[in-house]
User: Fold these one by one.
Assistant:
Number 1:
Amino acid sequence: MNNVPSAAPANSDYGSIAILITIVTALALAILIASHLIGPKRRRGPIKHGTYESGVQPIGTARRRFNVRFYLVAMLFLLFDVEILFFFPWASLFSRIKAAGDTGAVHHVWATAMVEGGFGSGFFLVEMLIFIGILFVGYVYAWRKGVFQWD
Amino acid sequence: MPDTPTKTYDLLLRRRSTLIIAAVGAAVLGGGLTLVLWPWIKPLLSAQSTFSILLMVAGIGILLSAFAICTLAERKIAGFVQDRRGPNRVGFWGLFQPVADGLKFLLKEDFIPARADRPVFLLAPCIALVVSLLGFAIIPWAGEIHWPWMPAGHTVSTQVASINVGVLYLLATGSLSVYAVVLAGWASNNKYAHFGGLRATAQMLSYEVPLGLGLLCVLLACGTLRLEEIVQQQAASGVWNVFLHPLAFLLVLISTFAETNRTPFDLAEAEQELVGGFHTEYSSMKFAMFFIGEYTHMITASALMVALFFGGWAPLPFGGFLADSTAWGWALVKFGIYAGKVSLFIGFFMLIRWTIPRFRFDQLMRLAWKGLVPIGMAMVVGSGVLVALERERNVFWSLVVNVALLSAALGVARLSKQEITGRQANMPEIEVGPV
């Protein structure tokens, strides 16, 4: 196992990411402005600036009602993706808990405390199984309700 | 008319010697400048903060040039698959085609339709570009480097930012790109763009779930979210994660195709039905920004898969070569290996694009929600049990679990007679008469 937490590297802060965001945003703005300055400016007109719908005169606006299924997808995504997010801390701590329980080495103060309190890896596995079981019940319910019916 | 200026220029560009002279000239110029400025460059290379900034600039440059090469490569591969030549007019072997395309984009009129929502219309391509160029920050391109002039034991990491939520950061920047698509579709006030945006949103949201589940299986076995540690583990043990988690790799691969809006999942810009989808109304550099965003997203996603499943810069899937080398020469070799693997992935993406036809929307959603999500959930349970039994680095037991899960999934699919892809469920049977 290679789970010994090393000392935090020098670039472990978000400073460089902030700099990167600045550079990239500046790049995007520069591209937009350059294209605006360099590109030719020709005549405007109702036909030229009209909405392109393959040569057919557009009827009404495009912002109209759409199928409710897209809304259902958004709801499902919220449910499932947020629950998956809850897994990530569990996943990154699980093998650390195991390492603390097996070798007794102080890898992580919190992990060692948990193991000493009687909550070993078995407890953590069962905990996850219960969680994913609840998730699975919700999934089966959604399936039986016909949420995944796409035609 | 043999000697019009354009003609001469064109002939000059088309010679192989022009290319060689240009490459040699650029190399001499760059090398000379580096030699002259070397005393000032040295301290910048050995401090992590300045090295990160240098990496950032170099990374953006490399990604943008890689994008240029990708556009050419895509058309060349399309030509190869369809038994034609592809672009071969601009420069030798069409090598200057990307330059010509870029100039063309820049010289086109900056156009906003009258009925579009102007600020959002301009914001959408910016989001596409910015978000896709953020992802490469956590890719560990070549491990750690120890420069010869640094004190012993000190290294700099070839990673812009080594943050402890590594993979989550990549996931987050990847999902932010859905905003570009949905805002572009909405702001255009065009029905094609609207439908394209809606479809793309539903698709990207749906495939986010199996992507997360697939990543979870690997992270569970690795016990860390830092990409550099995951690569180091694979390089040291010599076992690439793809041999431990082939099913998870498949989940991530399929989801990546959907996340980057590539064929067979490019319903958002299905040319035959939606003209251009969400970017129907976009032209000039704003269209190019969407294009850059798509290709850069593809490159970053390939780099993520290489780091997670194919050992990053590890040269061979056994032996643990190069795991502890920090000399800068070896770092260059490692970077070459990493870039080679990423190129293979991109070539695979392109080959798939010209090989497999597009999915229908119901097939797409069925594949995500009825196929990949339950397999992903079962995979997470399987990986959890493997970790609890301390078999997570054991190829044999991992493969046993993978094969068992795959056959169980296939068995359930066969018994329930629910096809993952294929015909619509409520369509009447087609009567086929005698031929």
Note: Chain A has a mean pLDDT of 77.
Number 2:
Amino acid sequence: MTLPLPFSRPPADERVTYSADEILTTDPGLEPLIANGVRCHGGFDPTGTYRSPRILHRAPAIRAWQGRLAAEGASLVTISRELLPPQYPNVAQAKLLLQGGVREPIVRALTMIAIVEGFGAIIRDVRVPDLRALVREPIDGTALAHLERGLFEAHARDEAGHRSEGGHKQMWEAARDLALENPRVPPDVLMRVMGGGGRPSERRRSFPQLDETLEGMLSTMANVLVIEVFAAGTFDWGDRLLSDPEVSAEPERAGAMVRCIRGDETPHVEYLRTALSEIRARTLITVAGGTIPGRSVVDALLHRTLGVLTTSRPKEQRAETRASVAEAMKRAGSPGRLLEEFDALETPLAPPTRTGFEPSSGAAGHAA
Amino acid sequence: MKLATRLRRSARIARAGVTLWLIYKVPDYLRRALGLPTPARRERTHERAARVMLRTALDLRGVVIKVCQVMATRSDVFPPAFVGVLKQLHDAVPPQPFERIGAAVERELGKPLHAVFSEFERVPLASASLAQVHRARLRDGRAVAVKVQYPDIEEIVRTDLENIRRGCQIYERLDPQPLELLPLLMELTSHLALELDFRREADSADRVREIFRDDPTVVVPKIHREWSTSRVLTMELVDGIKVTDLDALRRAGLDPSDVVQELMRIFVRMILAAGFFQADPHPGNLFVRPNRQIVLMDFGLSKELPEGFGLGLFELMFSMMTLNEAAMIRAFRELGFATKTGDPAPFLEIARRMMRRSDTGRFEGEFTEEMTDELFEAVRENPVVKVPSDFVLVGRAFSLLSGIAHTLGHRANVLAAMGART
């Protein structure tokens, strides 16, 4: 993965310690981003360039932590974009639906993206253990030391919005409403977001020898990192679809909104991969007082998450989405051939045979 | 119902009405006569008035208990001291003698008890304002719970509602700044009509069971329709631990925090996602089984929410959690909140008050008891705001759930309940 600016290589003398307030600070003097009447976070600098929120110190901080990691000879974990499952429905299928008057599945999909982005706020509830007691090597001046000192909170605020500023939830809603002219939201959207029945399955412990809170935190971070990386596919899809004047009422503004969100996600991917790489380069202390290489823990957690998100999950999602598309076509009185055309445009799902984080591989994906 | 009984009930209600009037007005007249200032808070007066209501309810039972129970849930209208006293009525309804109940079952089913049941316990499992529940066994051996409407309750409801309506009309004419009680009474009248039809309750139970058809962790007792009528409801007997029995939960190896989170997930799914919910989640209606299944009981007060309500409520909760004032105001409007003058300022005031509250405690991601109570209190102190009745019922349900969470010593994370995962 190529790191976009401002995350390129740092000078060696950059600061590595920040306060939470600094991590949460947005550039001053930005012209506010107003989307479909809703004030959103971030804004435009005097050159008219969009600046993400809360990156005044967060961006150089991440750059410095990555520089430090490189100076220590450690690599950054990288999830290959080749692992991304193809979007379903893809852009051609989505266009076919919109042009065929079957808008409901696309409105539902965009609304679900917005809600799930908003749910990202739950990262502020992740419990962070006393890492200094659970990691053998020092963690001062690392991303790890800043997870509770602003990084999780900044991530939560970016996703769900904070106070008077909308976040990605509101920005996706604005993009949807601009492009599709304030469509009626299907009433079943929350039922679909909440998914099938039953209480959420309990997290399976892979490393019972580790402190449970530590394993929980690392597992969540691995999950969120994979989701954030895979979101690139959603951004491509959203940008191309909502920027298309054949189906979008406001192609420029709606597409620009998706690109703003995409830019905001960069710090999320970068701090998560930095912190996980820091763990990977260190040694974890077990409950019994023994040790375990951080690398084996991080790689196993990423391998497990990638395994689910590249194989079973996309299959289930395809089946559910196709069923709802077929229902929506029926309700809209579409001719039977529309579903055939829809199926013919599908991008085949080809689950990868390897994740790059196989426990025996000895390699952490691809070193950046 | 005999004329004498009807007159006695009318007289008792009239006496309570006059006593309430005197409790509030005599001190006002005296203060004015002596030139004394009006006190800012009148907690003791409210408490005395509530005790008069409580005594009247326990004496007359039936609909008067129901009225008081409803008042105890309306912290947006009535002062906290009033609500605090009347809350007692949720757990303190004495049962009726078995002879009357047994005869009512036989009349409804058209058969002697022994022709339908091989066992029928004389002491009820529970008694409420309109009905009581007995444990029994069908002749084929299946254990059941039989909910029996009190004889004459329909006529009592009619008479009492009429008396209360007249009392409210007189009060609104005499008081220069009356509380708007008649709309509340109309709401109660419509709820009572629904609650008195047990066939509807059976339909509601089936509907909630359908919402959780793919969820083996939620149990809704099956209804035996062949032994049910509009006044008798025979249902599968499902055992479980009362949701607030902390010791029993722990003895069964259950984690109270897990129970709290599960309850929130179940009600969030009904209210926000399905748009149909059991609107009376007090502890007597919720049980936990040792295998962690949650049992939902009593669907007399179930409610269908209008389309879009769930999304509107989701937005309100979300905006509260993210402290977004503008989004809160939008959500209030989408949910049907209105101001009598059309002026949006009261919404702004309520939103700011919620924001201030959140500054003093953790409010992000967690659903708190204070969230509902504070909202209702803010609304009560801004009488210019009209609250949609659907919201009141939903707010009450969340408030009851929060009360359970408080008893169990845990709080629910509402984002996690909606499906967000850490």
Note: The radius of gyration of chain B is 23 Å.
